Amino acid sequence: MCYCQINDFAKAKEEMKIGIVCYPTFGGSGVLASELGLSLAKEHEVHFISYACPVRLQAHNDRVIFHKVDVPPYPLFEYSPYTLALTSKIIDVMEHHRLDIIHVHYAIPHATSAYLAKKALHGKVKIVTTLHGTDVYLLGLNPSYKSIVEFSMENSDSLIAVSEFLKKETLEKFSITRPIAVIPNFVNPEKYKRTGRGKEKIICHISNFRPLKRVADVVQIFGMIVKERDCRLYLVGEGPTRHPAQKLVEKLGLEEKVCFRGNVGDVSKILGKSNLFLLPSQQESFGLAALEAMSSEVPVVATRVGGLPEVIRHGKDGYLAKVGDLDTMAEHCLKILTNEGLAKKMGREARMRVLEKFATEKVVPRYVSLYQKTLVS
Ligand code: GMT
Predict the structure, then answer these.
(1) What distance in angstroms lies between residue 28's CA and the mean position of ligand 1's atoms?
(2) Is the pLDDT score of 1 beyond 50?
(3) Of 57, 87, 94, 127, which has the most beta carbons under 10 Å away?
(4) How confident is the model at residue 191 (pLDDT cuts 50, 70, 90)?
(5) How far is the CA of 348 from the centre of ligand 1 (A)?
């Protein structure tokens, strides 16, 4: 082992200085990145780099430093070059704080900015990229982005997918020779737990209300359920399909029973008092919101797509159905809402699964050991 490797190996064992690049929004990739950074901060120095402070980094934490990317407008630009401003910020933060690792979440454009920064720094930093889903099977496949996404994935020092499904999709859709590690989403079971439920049954849906979340299906399914069993629907999140969903609620005469909660920073309180979580997505690489529900002992009714079957065991933690099969999903929901014993059993099974496979203390060490292997590779 040459000196530099011994030196690197020694470094791999010490406190690391980790830069995390992510979207600051309510979407799953930004949430996961924030929770990862907050957990890493217990033993390492963590720097977040984004255009705004990630929503989950509310409380002050002196081991988590946020660096804002400013993108100055200029009349010549039709589109402000965020990728360049981000690259420049990564270089500055790297040089000033001597980071060991830059971990980017969501390949577009983060993996490209990290690659450019590494080149500018003559390779003095290691790049880890976590693929989160739509950066691979949706946007990443768009001809406007595909070549640079493929290049940036291939040129990351380590590549991670959040599910076996996403790893397979990536290998099938892109020519990647770099090995892809699978590290699932995780959740803090101390934060997401059952808090106590009132008499009224609550069905919850949380998402960014993009078309692939099929929020209209949530409303339609609820319309079928509420005819058979009195209950209430909480719709949490904001996005392009929120307004059409509101129109559908009015059309079906469900205004009294449906509550649009908008974007909520801490969804653990809502989940803690919900009886059922509904996620009829067209596609999900993992389904972090479903995992948060399971940790809260809330059975999940979802679609059998993407990484969801790696999270939810059909008939144990909830039920899975085909995309668009509203009748079956309504039946599954009613089974849970009308059978207290089944609901409790499913909720307990779901939380046990989280504690065994998806809790923070089980998953975060896998990121740390991947960082350490990356440092000495
Ligand atoms: O559409 C969302 O759910 C947001 C999206 C994102 O890119 O932030 O979430 C993706 O990453 C999450 C965290 O890894 C996964 O749990 C979600 O399943 C994934 N979304 C999709 O694949 C649609």
Answers:
(1) 5
(2) no
(3) 127
(4) very high
(5) 25
Q: Which atom of ligand 1 is nearest to the CA of 23?
A: 8
pLDDT of residue 4: 43
State if residue 28 touches ligand 1 by the CB under 6 angstroms criterion. Answer: yes
Q: Report the alpha-carbon angle 309-133-220, nearest 5.
A: 60
From 286, 300, 354, 358, give the residue whose CB has the most ligand 1 atoms within 8 Å, as the site to mutate: 286
Is there an atom of ligand 1 within 6 Å of 132 CB? yes
Distances (CA, A) of 79 to 97, 149, 345: 30, 19, 52
Q: Please, how many CA atoms are within 13 Å of residue 125, restricted to the half-sphere of its CB?
A: 31
How does pLDDT run across 305-338, given as a tens digit for each residue? Answer: 999 999 999 999 999 999 999 999 999 999 999 9
- Rounded to an integer, what distance in angstroms lies between the CA atom of residue 49 and that of residue 69? 7
Ligand 1 centroid–CA 135 distance in Å is: 9
Length of the chain: 377
Domains and CATH numbers, the chain: 17-186+359-376 (3.40.50.2000), 201-358 (3.40.50.2000)
Burial (Cβ within 10 Å: 0-12, 13-18, ≥19) of residue 172 = exposed
Model pTM? Answer: 0.94
The tokens of 251 are what? 């059309």
Find the 53 Cα to ligand 1 centroid distance in Å.
Answer: 19
> Which tokens in the block code for residue 51?
């255009």
Pocket flag, ligand 1, residue 208 (CB < 6 Å): yes
Nearest to 276 by CA among 216, 201, 219, 213: 201
How much is the mean pLDDT over the chain?
94
Q: Are 110 and 137 in contact (CB under 8 A)?
A: no
